[in-house]
Amino acid sequence: MLAASLFSGGKESVHAISAVENQGVEVKHLLHEIPTFDSPHAHNIEALETLAKSMNKHFTIVDLRNGERELVDSLKKLNVDALVAGDINVPQHIKWLKNICSQAGIELLEPLFGMKTSILFREMFSQPRFKATIIGVNTKYLTEEWLGFTISSKTAEEFLSRTRHIDPLGENGEFHTIVVESPLYSSAFKIKPLERITEKDMTYLRLTLSE
């Protein structure tokens, strides 16, 4: 089965790709959605392109500000069998994606949906080669000192012990990450912050990546 995957560069996004590829699905295309709301990932397109190149996958930008039809048309042009997404517990988004996939005539694959976030967190970060750096925080939940903190097998327990008041994967928008090391990548990366941006309760980094 040939698939495209929604790709933010975040932990769920990368883990979902790994999960379906372990089941024999070939993910050839990565689609980054520019949403109708502000997102730290949408301000780091160059970094996402770097990650896509490291995975040897084609990278496409879909601007949802032009309407959902742009996503439908993009999927049709790619001639894939399925769309992969990393939703865990947002049924409204899955319902929307099912409608998108129905219009495009393809299947929706949601390998993480319904998993308990505490279990999924440990599944992700028990891997020695899976590291995610925090690039955005909702300051109602986490202070800006967490920006640039890398969650890994070595720091996972520290992170959990200091953030017991939030969902471990930030499913309520508490924080956002970019995966800097993964078995899917040809090399590991480090972030280089360029700018710190604050929009209402969200503070995030604009950055570049270096090996």
Task: Describe, in short, the structure shown.
By secondary structure, this protein is α/β, with parallel strands linked by helices. Helices cover 29% and strands 29% of the residues. It has helices at residues 11-21, 45-54, 69-78, 91-104, 117-125, 156-162; strands at residues 2-6, 26-34, 58-63, 82-84, 107-109, 131-138, 150-151, 175-181, 190-199, 202-210.
Structure, explained:
- By secondary structure, the protein is an alpha/beta fold.
- The protein folds into two domains: 2-109, HUPs (Rossmann fold, 3-Layer(aba) Sandwich); 117-210, putative n-type atp pyrophosphatase, domain 2.
- The protein has helices at 11-21, 45-54, 69-78, 91-104, 117-125, 156-162; strands at 2-6, 26-34, 58-63, 82-84, 107-109, 131-138, 150-151, 175-181, 190-199, 202-210.
- Strands 3-2-1-4-5 form a five-stranded parallel beta sheet, with helices on both faces.
- The mean pLDDT is 95.
Could you list some keywords that capture this structure?
alpha/beta, Rossmann fold, putative n-type atp pyrophosphatase, domain 2, 2 domains, five-stranded parallel β-sheet, five-stranded antiparallel β-sheet, globular
The secondary-structure element order is EHEHEHEHEHEEHEEE
* Relative helix content: 25-40%
Label the overall shape.
globular
Overall tally of domains: 2
Give me the side-by-side strand order of the main sheet.
3-2-1-4-5
CATH superfamily of the largest domain: HUPs
The major β-sheet equals: 5 strands, parallel
Number of strands: 10
What is the level-2 CATH architecture name of the largest domain? Answer: 3-Layer(aba) Sandwich
Class computed from helices, strands and strand pairing: alpha/beta
Helical stretch tally: 6
Cα-atom radius of gyration = 16 Å
**What amount of the residues lies in strands?**
25-35%
What is the top-level CATH class of the largest domain? Answer: Alpha Beta
The fold-level CATH name of the largest domain is Rossmann fold
Instruction: Report low-confidence residues grouped into runs of 5 or more.
Output: none
Distance between the termini: 32 Å
